[in-house]
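Box 3.1. Reading complex inputs
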Amino acid sequence: MAATSQVVAFMPRARFAWLMLLFLGPAVAIYSLFSIYPLLATISLSTYSTNQTGDYIFAGLSNFVTLLTDTVWSKPFWNALLNNVILFGVHMLVQNPVGIALAGLLSLPALRFRATYRTLIFLPTMLSVVIIGFAWTLILSPLWGVAEGLLKSVGLGAWFAPWLGLPSTALITLSLISVWQFIGIPMMLIYASLLNIPEELVDAARVDGLGQFRIFTHIKLPLILPTIGMVSILTFVGNFNAFDLIYAVKGALAGPNFASDILGTYFYRTFFGYQLQVGSPTMGATVATVMFLIILMGVCAYLFLVQRRMLRYTF
Amino acid sequence: MRRRISVFGVHTVLIAYTLLAILPILLVVMNSFKTRNAIFGSPLSPPNAETFSLVGYVSVLGKSNALVYLENSLIVTLGSMILVLLLGAMAAWALTEYRFRGSTLLILFMSVGIMVPIRLGSVAIVAMMLRLGLNDTLTALVLVYVAQGLPMSIFILSEFIQQIPKDLRDAARCDGVPETRIFFEVIAPLLRPAIATVAVFTMVPVWNDLWFPLILTSSDNTHTITLGVQHFVGQYTTDWNSVLSALSLAILPVVVIYVVFSRQLISGLTAGAVK
């Protein structure tokens, strides 16, 4: 942060306080009221439950015990959590490596049409998850037969299956749709940090006889590890907070038979209810608090383990 | 020779991935301009004089409040963007320029929102909006989106303000210019390049959001375009012309804006992201 300017130090205290109130007041007020307060209120609500008359009574951690051990709640919860881990795994294994590879190719020296590739590959990231979800539903639909026709034309017609409809493949297919949409983010962030690597380092390696591929794996990749760490934590937070895609394609029931249910859709169902199940604000708050703790653990792990160990290269 | 082959290889890979990225979108838009028979008969061919049809668009505009949804989305997106930019720039200026007791704590407090999604507070947000009488209004959406966008915008704008030379403001101070005017007349005009970046980070997620319109708006005339499309497509799943046209109507404005501003958007994204 910037050093204090000498000139400000002479301002009378009361006027300085007014000035700060004017500049910081509105932002801090809106942020505290509509972001931090709801978060804290939700966490506190998770320790209450409702009695027959609808009054809230303090219940300690009993909601959490119910969520984790009562099979009515715990079975779908663990299912959603496991699915969420799979969703995150697919992103880490497919989205980030492919994003890194694309960024590596885009940052090659003297590449023509660089801007065009970059713009077009980033396009799906700009569109709404809802639209992307529906577009892929149509493309993969056996009714329309576009995907099936394409596979047939290359002789792989037998491979086709209604992937989005089968319990065994729905979640993986949805994860890949999400990867397809959001690959632009790791690509852009890593591309930007690749461009920041000083020329001299790359030139030195080239003089030593390294080819482009070895320069990338031996020189550039270690230098961009902090960015890869940041991309990973962004992916983690995004995935454990995801909802829109599953809801758009599969609805709140995250079918078939909850095969694509993740924490976001499970939270929606507990809070608003579905079919015969009545929605419960207190249990909804409990699920949200658990999601908050999971995200908090991920962020802390990143801050304490990953970021501390990583060498910060300053150019 | 080897070099030429490898350049060819790089372009092959990039072209293949680019096609993978845009063909699905192109397929939807292309087929929205075709007759029902052509959509199913030859999905991969572009519309020609014989198969061209606007029947889907006519039925979307007739059956839904598409224009109201678009207007709501515009109001919410622009409203939150302007507030995030103005309040974010003022707060970023105060937090970078002045030191006071607790300013470091305040910076930490504001940065919580960068990592923790505001969505997790939904249960309390819904209850609070009901109590404030703001349920089912666009104001509720704007307030939530401003709270959501502020931390990131303060972060990016602070980085940017630090790069503005110190002499500029000190010279103004020596001339006796009041602090508020230093911000609005000296600093604010210099922030213009950073505004593109902040606008991307605010506008796109707000325009595309499904969650908050879903839980905070209930009547048809407060729906945003994303929620409107979600409802419409869910309702008319079997009317392929309408579904494809509704999706295209939602895709086209974003694509047009993106293509026009892509250079600024991407340079802002990459410049703001590296720090």
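In summary: Residues 71-309 of chain A form a domain with the MetI-like fold fold (CATH 1.10.3720.10).
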